[in-house]
């Protein structure tokens, strides 16, 4: 134990010079650290500036893209916020149209009622049109699966195949986007 005490320095004593040399970086005789020439320094700094400039341009473009996407999202939200509300109102329009069909006839008692329902339907459709809700009634037009829903196909030699021959329920668009497809009967060539 006495030998171990002699090998370890005490807390207040300095380390031997050999221990200090181990802590310093070792240079070999062939390696000399030469200072960087001014041209090398300028080239290195120009490269760093170029890199920083590119990163700044990318960050600016990314920020502009984020702003543009946010504006588009807000515009879409504003444009199609009425979609659910529109879907709730469309059955009311359908019922008013059915009431008008049921009131057709020569009975004098029904004429004032039919006239009132017709005026109500007209004002309702005008209100929908103010908010860019447009009807899709494709009677006689070619069948378009993006706007129409075929309920049945009927053989008909009088019109070309895939023509809408009857509209069972009108469809509607909101700002050009389909809210409800038109339910239609489509012609097909006779067998």
From TrEMBL:
SUPFAM superfamilies: Coiled-coil domain of nucleotide exchange factor GrpE (SSF58014), Head domain of nucleotide exchange factor GrpE (SSF51064). InterPro entries: GrpE, GrpE_CC, GrpE_head. Its main location: cytoplasm. Residues 29-39 have a biased composition (Acidic residues). It is found in: Cytoplasm. Residues 1-41 are annotated as: Disordered. It comes from the Bacteria. Residues 42-80 form a coiled coil. Residues 9-28 have a biased composition (Low complexity). Keywords: Chaperone, Coiled coil, Cytoplasm, Stress response. The keyword Protein transport does not apply. Belongs to the GrpE family. Homodimer. Participates actively in the response to hyperosmotic and heat shock by preventing the aggregation of stress-denatured proteins, in association with DnaK and GrpE. It is the nucleotide exchange factor for DnaK and may function as a thermosensor. Unfolded proteins bind initially to DnaJ; upon interaction with the DnaJ-bound protein, DnaK hydrolyzes its bound ATP, resulting in the formation of a stable complex. GrpE releases ADP from DnaK; ATP binding to DnaK triggers the release of the substrate protein, thus completing the reaction cycle. This is Protein GrpE. It comes from Candidatus Marimicrobium litorale.
């Amino acid at each position: 134990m006495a030998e171990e005490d002699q090998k370890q320095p005490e807390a207040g004593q300095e380390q031997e010079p050999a221990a200090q040399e181990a802590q310093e970086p070792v240079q070999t005789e062939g390696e000399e650290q030469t200072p960087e020439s001014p041209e090398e320094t300028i080239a290195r700094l120009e490269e760093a500036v170029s890199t920083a400039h590119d990163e700044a341009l990318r960050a600016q473009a990314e920020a502009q893209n984020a702003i543009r996407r946010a504006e588009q999202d807000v515009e879409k939200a504003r444009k199609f916020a009425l979609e659910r509300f529109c879907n709730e109102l469309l059955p009311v329009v359908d019922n008013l149209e059915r009431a008008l069909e049921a009131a057709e006839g020569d009975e004098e008692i029904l004429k004032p009622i039919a006239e009132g329902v017709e005026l109500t339907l007209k004002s309702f459709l005008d209100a929908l049109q103010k908010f860019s809700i447009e009807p899709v009634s494709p009677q006689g037009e070619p069948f378009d699966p993006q706007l129409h829903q075929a309920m049945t196909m009927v053989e008909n030699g009088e019109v070309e195949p895939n023509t809408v021959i009857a509209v069972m329920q009108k469809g509607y668009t909101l700002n050009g986007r389909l809210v409800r497809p038109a339910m239609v009967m489509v012609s097909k060539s006779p067998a």
